[in-house]
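Review form for a predicted model. The reviewer records the input and the model, then writes brief findings.
Reviewer: anonymous (R2)
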Amino acid sequence: MCRPDSARSPRYLHSPQVQEIQLDVGGSVRGVALLLAIAGLYGVMAYSVTRRTGELGTRIALGATPGNILRMVLGQGLVTALMGGDWSWRSASPTRTLRSLLFGLSPTDPVTFLAVTLLLIFVALLACYIPPVGPPRSTPWWRCV
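Model under review:
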C-alpha cells in the first residue's frame, strides 16, 4: 500500500522552527550567491576595461578628451550590463520549479528581479568607471625630476 508523502514524513519537518531554519539558511546562501555574483561581475568588467588601457591611451593621443573616453567606456559597459539584465529577465521562467523553496514570494517577483538587476547594473557601471578614473599605475615624469 502506497501512502502519500505527508503521511511518511515526520511531523517535526513541518514545524515552524524547521521552516525558520530553512529560511535563515536559504537567505544566507542567497546572500553569498549575490556577493559572489557582484564580485565576479566587478572583476570581469574592470578587467575588460583595464585591458583596453593601450587603446584608450591611443585615443587620447589622437585627440579624444577624457570625458569622451569615459562616456565611451561607460556606454559600452551599460550596453553589456543591460544585455545581461535582459537575459536574466528572459530566463526567469524556469524559476517556477523553485516554488517550494520560496516563502512569501512568487518565483517571478518583479520587485526582487528589478532590485537585483539594478544592483548588478550599478556594479557593472562602477567597475567601468573606476579603472579609467582611478589612480595611475605609473609615476608621472615630473615627480621623477
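Findings: The two ends are 91 Å apart (CA to CA).
Further findings: Residues 141-145 have pLDDT under 50 and may be disordered.
Recommendation: see findings above.
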